[in-house]
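Known limitations

Files may contain more than one protein. Parsers should not assume a single record per file. Below, a two-record file is shown to illustrate correct handling: read the sequence, read the token line, then continue until end of file.
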Amino acid sequence: MTGEELERAIEFLLQSQANAEVRMAAFDARQDRTDQQIAEMSKQIQVYAETQSQFIEIVTRSLEGLAATQARTDRRIAESNARTDRRIAESNARTDQQIAETHARTDRQIAETHAHTDQQIAETHARTDQQIAETHARTDQQIAETHAHTDQQITETHARIAETSARGAETDARLDRLAALVERNISGSNGNS
């Protein structure tokens, strides 16, 4: 092998090594971007979890408000009953018919108030349950989509790593063969001189 051929062989080895280093740097950059994307997805999942916690807190406050409303309603009913009882006590001179009519009106008001309050509570519970179910469904879907996207990116990264490793192994084998050839040529040249 001539000196020119030897120089070309060495230049080829150096170029191959440089190309391999460029490919490895590109792979490292892609890996860094993948790691950053995974970190951003983790932040999004955290935001979704915080949103869900805030929604549960809002629902809890709403239920506490409903309980307070029910307590006020019960207090008003009790006060109404007390007023009715006072009126009955103060008006002993009135007839039994008037007392019966007053009791009938009071009982009707109480029943209507209870029915209306129960209906409002049932409607609020139904709306709240539906909102919670919808939020859970949306959150579960978003988490599933994020997991699927992350799994796909990880699979693609593993495939690129395997491909890069295979190419590196092929380059190493070629370089080994070329080095052996150069060494044989150098040994052959030294033996002839």
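...continuing to the second record:
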Amino acid sequence: MAFYDDMAALSVEMAEEFGAPCTLIKNEGEYDTATSEVDNAPASHEGYAIRTDYKLEDIDGTMIQFGDIRLFLAPKTTAGAEMPKAEQGDKILFDGSYWEVIRDDVKRPATVTLGHFVQARKG
């Protein structure tokens, strides 16, 4: 596992050096049995991300739309905790704009998260 741990550490270093700060905002609501309601208090996870745009030939108009971006999220938050998986509908604050998560392709060989490739859409 030492190899993958080293690769995860390198992912964090690269994102810090070549990326920008980001905040993953998750709606981690909990079900309250007394009120039968879900408390949708958002939880923020600060980290680093690198933005890349999709190639024109990747944009099919359905799964990937014009204007969608790909963000590589470092595997660790700035506090050193594991960056949670971004779920559809979560938000990411990156470079002064809010982006809605469409999907998160977590790269996780041998139980070590190396990073998250997140498809995001303005909104």
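Parsers that stop after the first record will miss the second one. For reference, the second record is described as follows. The beta strands are 20-27, 30-32, 37-39, 42-53, 69-73, 91-94, 97-107, 115-122.
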